[in-house]
Here is the input.
Amino acid sequence: MAESKAGSCFTSRDCRLKEATYIDKEGRKWLVHLPNDAPNSDANTGIPIGPPSLDDLELPETYAIALHNQLFLRKIWTSKHIKHRRADVIDAIKSAYKVDAEKIYAHYLKWEGAL
Here is the structure.
């Protein structure tokens, strides 16, 4: 189920576009442009601002979605953001994989308890 959130008006003299967010059916968070008079519930039909799809990286879907959402949370929308905020990108990658580190830790604890 897509979830939308009101956003700010896109910079323009007469404010014809606004920003809105939504969550797609896979769980990815998106920032989009919408006509100013469109309801935020139409965010899934808006013009994507970012982050871009990471499908070309051929990551397992779980990681791709987690990384996409970490980039979203850090407002890393463009290559310019990547270029100037490498530390944030590295933190996004670390955070996307942190979940599995916790699963691995729990697995080790379970295995050690069985010895």
Q: What stands out?
A: The beta strands are 3-9, 17-23, 29-35, 47-50.
